[in-house]
Amino acid sequence: HSLSISCAIFTDFKSIEGDKQFGIDSIPVMYGVDVAKWICAVAQVFPQLAVAAYLYFVGETAYAFAIAGLVLPQLYYIKMLLLVDPVANDIAFQTSCQPFFFLGLVATALCMGQHDWAV
Predict the structure, then answer these.
(1) CA–CA separation, 88 vs 103, rounded Å?
(2) In whole numbers, what is the pLDDT of the chain averaged over residues?
(3) What would the 3-class secondary structure string for 7-69 be?
(4) Cα dist. 33→52, 83, 93, 94, 108 in Å?
(5) pTM of the predicted model as reported, rounded to 2 decimal places
(6) What's the start-to-end Cα distance of the chain, in Å?
(7) d(CA 41, CA 78)
(8) How many whole angstroms separate alpha carbon 117 and alpha carbon 119?
(9) Do residues 86 and 13 make contact, with C-beta atoms less than 8 angstroms apart?
(10) Complete DSSP assignment for 85-105
(11) Does residue 119 have a pLDDT over 70?
(12) Region for residue 116 given its phi and psi (left: phi exceeds 0; alpha: psi -120 to 50; beta: otherwise)
């Protein structure tokens, strides 16, 4: 769900003026671009690090390090594109950052699929 939150906020950057005009309370309209870009960054990175930490503590260190490693390029693109100008860098950020996020989802699914986790 963190990806959908991050993507939803990110797509809202493109429509700030329209959202204001039509009274739509998107995150960038309510909190401003500077706060919204940080919410977007945290919503993307924090859940992945939490999953990596959990997998590490249950003994799945290879998957934990793989997911944590996939966060590193995302942090780079967040710093170089999202935090610089989320409006101008929208497409570049999404096409650069999302593949690493999805690879982390795949790694998590592969790890979870090999266990009979108690629900």
Answers:
(1) 25
(2) 88
(3) HHHHHHHHHHHHHHHCCCCCHHHHHCHHHHHHHHHHHHHHHHHHHHHHHHHCCCHHHHHHHHH
(4) 29, 10, 15, 17, 31
(5) 0.83
(6) 19
(7) 7
(8) 6
(9) yes
(10) -TTTTHHHHHHHHHHHHHHHH
(11) no
(12) beta
Classify the C-alpha dihedral 39-40-43-44 as positive or negative: negative
On the CB side of 53, how many CA atoms lie within 13 Å of its CA? Answer: 6
pLDDT value at position 2? Answer: 54
Is 90 within 8 Å of 10 (Cβ atoms)? yes
Q: Which has the closest alpha carbon to 82: 19, 33, 29?
A: 33
Q: Is the pLDDT confidence value at 118 over 70? A: no
Give the number of other Cβ atoms within 10 Å of residue 109's Cβ: 10
User: Which tens digit of pLDDT belongs to each residue from 13-63?
Assistant: 778 888 888 988 888 889 988 998 999 899 889 999 999 999 999 999 999
Cα–Cα dist 45/3, whole Å = 9
